[in-house]
Design goal:
CATH superfamily of chain B: P-loop containing nucleotide triphosphate hydrolases
Oligomer: heterodimer
Number of helices of chain A: 13
Structural class of chain A: alpha+beta
Strand content of chain B: 15-25%
Strand order of the largest sheet of chain A: 2-3-8-5-7-6
Number of domains of chain A: 2
Largest sheet of chain B: 6 strands, mixed
Radius of gyration of chain B: 19 Å
Structural class of chain B: alpha/beta
Distance between the termini of chain B: 37 Å
Largest sheet of chain A: 6 strands, mixed, barrel
CATH topology of chain B: Rossmann fold
Number of domains of chain B: 1
Helix content of chain B: 25-40%
Number of strands of chain B: 10
């Protein structure tokens, strides 16, 4: 115990004594550890952002999509199939299930004219499954289906047509045709990219269906269910079999995963990104380490008498080796902590956060990145300290005292 | 009272092979026993093998022939780690050039040997180092670095460092070599006093007969051969000790071969054309 504490104390004292040399040699290490940590963290942020964007189109992992069609060309009895799906899903106790009909054409009265606007019919689970962000207002609640004036969520481009009125001031859309009526706007979805001019209305499936006797025959109803990722591989075939049971041969039911996690290419592209950027940072770290070895070796030549004096006062070879090795390790660990702090500061900087502004769930600074940075710093310290430590041990005490 | 032998050299010889494949004998059949509380002085010219003898006594070096015994144990059979620990616990070195750790305070320098101790000695090293520095009269210079201390003060720090682990054997290699006569005298007095207090054996290597005169037993090392002599009898016949010291320190061809860093301009100036036979005894040298 006292040996380790003593060696650590000696290493720390040596570092304090040679502050300038240590500082200069460690700048490279701190920067490269910071870079390595930042790369790992940025990679995680990037992954989170990509996942969220993928979730918006394909749903969160694991989203299972159910679609049905008839092979004999006969019209689909959506009400019957909907009842069938409801019956089956009841057995599975799904928490997040949505019907999706997209698109449904509506005639909407805008300030200038009546114009066709595509609507998307969904259930309240849809924005949860798809992480659909809101610029203003709120998403649907189950109770909204009971309202006589069904609420809608519109896209930002459509909102612009009306001059971005305040949602709280009773802003509502008016439609004509079969679904004529007033639809209070409760939320606005943001543009997905610069120049996104898609004018779209999202409406609750039940609100729309209540206004019509039956769904138009040419629409296609899809179902999506968000289930735990763990058992999805087993769930898929069983669910498909349950849904097919009781249907005639001409009805074809398809069950498939649509989320990003089901696509290995998305994951492998992230791995490549991390590998390339991490490799560059590791190379920088290695160069920093080489610089450190160089400086330590030169410093060791100057300290050879000191080593001799220490040996004459009872320092064993092991102790000298440990002390010199620890000097590098302690130094690079400190540099590593500084590097990690720099990486945290950079990643929390407003300009970096702006790059990930679309991210909904901003992950905390990834522990994996900090651990990777610290391990890399300690490893490079041990590597850089090994040769000088060996040199210190191999020096002859008598020659060292004469030096 | 019979003294207990602390370190014993039996038929010790040390030789090295020179680049031209010739053998250089540094020490020849040296027998020496140092007991606890003993005070031994070894005088000899530069290159006579004094430092090699001191290194053997301090277990820093191993003999080519013969055996070294420490506390009755043969040193040759000890493993390196055990030897290092044994040396740390029992031997304190005082060097001519002080060899203090540059840039470290006096306290850090004196603390250093206790850093290799264990248990209570390790954990209370700061207090022990402070006490020892106070004992050598440097309680007010604890935070001074060697660069801020005079030569005499540096050597006192070195003495405090050598004694802080309460060693049984103190090996002083020309402890006054870098000091003026007056400072050297006070440093030696301090070293004597502290060694006596701790009942430690003190082996001093010197070319200064004033310093050698403080010892109880005196040895002369010449051409690798160690012989005991009575300095009291010699001094009585000697007109002036400084002249005697000069001649004792005459450089030799062996000294040049070993590139002894201690040979200084003063030593060179003292070279006189004299044969080895003239140096057989200090009295003869002075006569």
């Amino acid at each position: 115990m006292s040996g380790l504490v003593g060696a650590l104390g000696e290493a720390w004292s040596e570092l304090r004594h040679h502050k300038l040399r240590v500082l200069l040699s460690l700048i490279g290490i701190a920067v490269s550890v910071g870079a390595l940590t930042a790369v790992v963290a940025l990679s995680e942020y990037q992954q989170q952002q990509m996942e969220e964007q993928s979730d918006q189109s394909g749903g969160r992992p694991a989203t299972v999509s159910i679609s049905v069609s008839r092979t004999d060309g006969a019209p689909m009895d959506w009400d019957a199939f909907d009842a069938h799906v409801a019956q089956v899903s009841e057995r599975y106790s799904f928490d997040y299930l949505t019907r999706i009909v997209d698109p449904v054409p509506l005639q909407v009265q805008t300030p200038e004219q009546v114009r066709p606007v595509n609507a998307r019919l969904v259930d309240p689970a849809y924005p949860v499954i798809h992480r659909t962000p809101l610029l203003e207002g709120r998403w649907f609640q189950e109770a909204d289906a009971e309202l006589l004036a069904p609420p809608v969520v519109i896209s930002e481009a459509l909102w612009d047509v009306y001059g971005r009125p305040d949602l709280g001031a009773g802003f509502a859309l008016r439609t004509t045709g079969d679904t004529a009526g007033t639809y209070p706007v409760i939320g606005v979805t943001p543009r997905q990219y610069n120049g996104d001019e898609e004018k779209r209305i999202t409406m609750m499936f039940d609100s729309y269906a209540a206004r019509l006797d039956a769904l138009p025959a040419d629409v296609m109803v899809m179902y999506e269910v968000w289930v735990p990722e763990d058992g999805v591989a087993e769930l898929g075939p069983v669910l498909a079999a349950d849904l097919r049971a009781g249907l005639d041969d001409s009805t074809e039911v398809s069950v498939m995963r649509t989320d990003w996690a089901s696509r290995p290419d998305a994951q492998s592209s992230m791995a490549v990104f991390e590998l390339v950027t991490g490799g560059i940072a590791a190379l920088v770290l290695l160069l920093g380490g080489l610089g450190l070895v160089n400086i330590q070796l030169v410093a060791m030549r100057q300290r050879i008498r000191e080593i001799g004096v220490r040996r004459s006062f009872g320092a064993t070879q092991g102790r000298i080796f440990t002390s010199v090795l620890l000097e590098s390790v302690v130094a690079t660990a400190v540099a590593g902590v500084v590097g990690i702090a720099i990486a945290v500061a950079v990643l929390k900087a407003p300009f970096v956060m702006d790059m990930f502004s679309a991210m909904q769930d901003i992950p905390p600074f990834p522990v994996r990145a900090a651990v990777t940075g610290l391990v890399a710093a300690v490893a490079i310290g041990a590597l850089a300290g090994f040769i000088p430590a060996l040199m210190a041990v191999r020096s002859n005490v008598i020659d060292a005292l004469r030096f | 009272m019979e003294l207990v032998t602390l370190v014993r050299l039996e038929g010790v010889a040390k030789h090295v092979l020179l680049p031209d494949d010739t053998r250089l004998d540094i020490l020849r059949s040296v027998d020496l026993a140092v007991a606890a509380g003993d005070h031994v002085a070894i005088v000899g010219r530069s290159g006579s093998g004094k430092s090699t003898l001191l290194n053997l006594l301090g277990m820093l070096d191993s003999p080519s022939e013969g055996a070294v015994w420490f506390h009755g144990e043969p040193v040759r059979k000890m493993r390196r780690g055990k030897l290092d620990r044994l040396r740390g616990r029992n031997v304190g070195f005082v060097f001519q050039q002080f060899n203090l750790l540059a840039g470290r305070t006096a306290l850090e320098n004196v603390e250093m040997p206790l850093g290799y101790a264990s248990g209570r000695a390790f954990w209370t090293r700061r207090a022990a180092a402070t006490r020892m520095l106070e004992r050598v009269g440097l309680g007010h210079r604890l935070e001074s670095t060697p660069e801020q201390l005079s030569g005499g003060e540096q050597q006192r720090v070195a003495i405090a460092r050598a004694l802080v682990r309460r060693p049984a054997l103190i090996l002083a290699d020309e402890p006054t070599g870098a000091l003026d006569v007056e400072t050297g005298g006070s440093v030696m007095e301090l070293l004597d006093d502290i060694a006596s207090e701790a009942d430690a054996a003190l082996v001093t290597i010197t070319h200064d007969l004033h310093v050698a005169a403080r010892a109880r037993r005196h040895y002369r090392l010449e051409a690798g051969v160690l012989t005991e002599f009575d300095l009291g009898a010699t001094a009585g016949e000697t007109a002036g000790a400084p002249e005697l010291a000069e001649s004792v320190d005459e450089p030799t061809a062996e000294g040049a071969a070993l590139a002894d860093a201690r040979a200084d301009a003063g030593d060179a100036a003292s070279v006189r054309p004299s044969s080895r036979a003239e140096h057989a005894e200090p009295a003869e040298v002075a006569s």
